[in-house]
Every structure is written in structure tokens, then in C-alpha cells.
Amino acid sequence: MGDGEPAERRRCRLCAEGRPCVYPEIDYLGGQTVAKLFGIIGDPVENSLSPAIHRLFFDQCGIDAEYRRFPAKKEELRERLRELRERNISGFNVTHPHKQAVIEFLDEIDLPAKEAGAVNTVVCKGERWIGTNTDGTGFIASLKEHVADIGEISTLIIGAGGAARAIYRALLEEGAKRIDVANRHPDRAAWMVERLNGGRAESRVMTLEDCERRLSGYGLVVQTTPVGMAPLDGRTPVSLRHLSDKALVIDIIYHPKETVFLREARRKGAKTANGLPMLLHQAAFAFQKWFGHLPDIAPVREKIDQILEERSC
Questions:
Q1: Which of 73, 99, 114, 268 is catalytic?
Q2: What domain of life does the native source organism fall in (predicted)?
């Protein structure tokens, strides 16, 4: 396709064939073919920070690539993935609600993804798509900003979804000796513990009501449910009445920057952290899967913090 071709004719092959396509803009930027295409697929993805993060990584490393949002409802996943295959996408991230559902469309998944039962990153090697999960390693990297000896801290995980499984597995790999799990449906938490633990740590499964009464016994509390972000903002999954003021409380939600859960923990005197560090670290590890080296997250964090501040205004 020549440089002088009119912009209105710069269309992707799917559009040219008259087939449905909701992303006609992603193949050409400024009249030039994108060398490498990456993105995030999920629903919703309109407010995802991943495009901003990865574009900053690309700029930092001098990589000619583009990162886009690919909105896809549950019933649209198959068709959207087929479109991405036809576009020869180089790699993509997966977010809610597709972290489990995407697995059947991949050629291979690695051990972290298999044990977590969820994929958040796909590496595309030609026609072969390989799923992995960087949520766990991203969480551990963010946790190490606060905790020196992970093995000696008693942990409570609230939730039993894909992120909780990745975090539980990563804590086991770090030698954590006690990891309890509370969930609205304890059978899901019990399945997670049975699937992953292998006798490596002491783990108690409990209801959300039970964990409220036991909170004083934990040095680390990790909130992994969607409660606290839209449309569930303004809510908290459990009461923190019995929380220890010596605890570190992490909510993996990053928008809003301080959920009701974190605000209550801070008022109890606990140290708190939101999900932005985990997001940045897991994105860096995904980048490493695609390009073979880790980017520096420090300058990126400052700019993403600014974006979040602007969104909060």
C-alpha cells in the first residue's frame, strides 16, 4: 500500500472484505502500517490503563509498536479472537471476564496459568498462541516494596477468582507458611486451596462473616474481589472492625485510588496499598514475555499516577 493512498482507503482486510469489524483504525496509524500490534481484550476496557502503560514502555525502549483496547462481551470473544489472529497480533493482555474463557482458544498455557486456572497475557509466536499469567509475579513484586520476609507473615486472601488464585500460587512459591482464604462461596475457595496447596502451607477456608471475626490474626490482608470499583464502588466486602493496626492491607483495585475498604483500613491505623503497583509490575512482566527484557516502571508509575489523579477530579 503506497504512502500516497487516500486515508479513506486505508482499511483493514476484514473491512475491505465487507466483514464486521469494530476496530477499523488499528491497522494503520498516520498512514503507516503498525510494525507490531498489541492490546487488551475484555469487557469493559474503556478505562483500562494498560494502553497508557505499554505505550510508555514502548517509548522507553524505542519499540515501534501500538497497544489498543479490544472490547469484547462474553458472546463476542470467539469472533474477536478470530479477528486478532487474522491481524497477526503480536501479543495481548486478557482481563475480566475472559481470563478463564480465553484458555480454550489458545494452543498452549504455561504452568503459572495452568495452576491459576486463568490467563492474563498471551504471547503470539507466529500462529501459535501461548497463555501465561503475570498477576502472581506482579503481586509479589509489589508486595516486596513493603514486606521483607513473605514466608513469616500470616495472610488472608479475600476472594477466590482468577487473581486470587494467581496470588495464592505466588505466595506459596515464595514460601508463605499460612494463607487463609475467605469467599462468599467457600466451596470455590476450598477448590482453589485443594488444587494449589499440595501441603505447602497451612490454609483455612472460611466465609466472609467468619473472616471478619478473625482479622486480628493477620499481618497481610489482600482484597481481590471487584467490590469497591464501579458499579460496586462505595461498598466493602467485609467489615474491618477487628483488623490489627499492624497489618498491611492491599486492595488490588486501582481506581478509585482509595476504596472504602482501604479507607477503613487506614482509619484503623493499618498500612495500605492499592492495586496500581501490582498493575505496573504485572504489565512489566507481560512486556518481558513479549520482548525478553523488563522495562523500568519508576518513570511510568509517576505518569500513570497523574492520569489517575486527573480521572479522580
A1: 99
A2: Bacteria
